[in-house]
Amino acid sequence: MRGFVFIGLLIPSLLLADSGWTSAGKVVEIIADSDVRFRVKIIVEKNPSQCKESKWFYRDYLSSGSQQMFATLLEALTENMKVKVYVNGKCGFKGYSELSAVSILAK
Questions:
Q1: Could you report the per-residue pLDDT of 45-79, keeping only the tens digit for each?
Q2: Is 60 within 8 Å of 39 (Cβ atoms)?
Q3: Does pTM surpass 0.70?
């Protein structure tokens, strides 16, 4: 039994974080490549997930709604608009928060 407890302590908090909406912020960088996900840097004051990288977010390309979220983030970047993203409580790729929704705000 002691071995199972020890193994549990070694598992990083990869999946365990808080979920909720971030504060509104500017999209400053989007990385879209041949990897399995896109990454986006948003300058936010509040990120409820408390993942290692508080201003970086990601979404897998094959996840439901990812194309719409990418398009919304790209529009916000090109139009210099603020967005809020909903983080789902998963700290994944490089300690980035996984996002599951995007809200774009009027100028």
A1: 999 998 999 999 999 999 999 999 999 999 999 99
A2: no
A3: yes
Contacts of 30 (CB under 8 A, 6+ apart): 38, 39, 40, 41, 70, 73, 74, 77
At 41, list the tokens. 């840097």
What the block records as the tokens of 6 is 């020890």
Q: Do 68 and 40 form a contact (C-beta atoms < 8 A)? A: no
Tokens of 14: 């990869």
Which stretches does DSSP call E strand in the chain? 19-21, 25-32, 37-43, 53-60, 82-91, 96-104
| 102 in Cβ contact with 44 (< 8 Å) | no
